[in-house]
Amino acid sequence: MRRRIRNELLLVLGVSLGQSAVYSIVDLLGKLSSGRVLAAQSSVLNPTHAPGRPWLDLSFQLVGILFGLVPAFLALHLLGRDGERHSDRLGLRPVRAGFDLRYGVGLAALIGIPGLGFYFVSRAMGINTTVVPEALPMLWWTVPILVLSAAQNAILEEVVVVGYLMTRLRELAWGLPAMVLASSLLRGSYHLYQGFGGFIGNAVMGSVFALFYLRYKRIGPLVVAHTLLDTAAFVGYALLKDHVAFLN
Fold it and tell me: What's the pTM value of the predicted model, to 2 decimals?
């Protein structure tokens, strides 16, 4: 039983955020060996895939968002095979929508305001790249796509890195400190392409989210908070980049 759970966990991570972590480490090594300091390099989060061809670009964006959710649905499916409805097990059902919204907004404020300050500090220290939240043409679909991208990131990461991972680690008899550490380090590692600042900031966020989940047994507020954070970053940058100097 333990071997089956361990193998399943490794496979789920291997086709999702564990794979992203490995690519992120390789990407960081490439940046470190380029001869340029990290602060002089950039990391683009939502690039265009078909410059000058808006409808094709929109198609690529939608397909990427759709397939980006598949690992989360896979994790939920695997949890559901255990006999308990996965939406109940992870706290995804909107039966406590008010709770999810209130705590989600609170978590977004708790993480977002210090996180923005830490990003500028880490850039000034030369340990982080310049993060470009989006590089899309400003078209009628740009803002909706950025919101959908934010939601996709939130669902994927909170389902896999918090709900699924910590459920399986508990079944493998991991202690609570080790579970929190594993979840936070995984979250930080697949952000290493941004630099060491991205790793530290996201690992801290991962610790807060993991502890919240252990306390309340709901990832609903985490999905809300993560969606709000990414939406603010993506859409805010898209709307302000041509008007605020320090964003460029």
Answer: 0.94
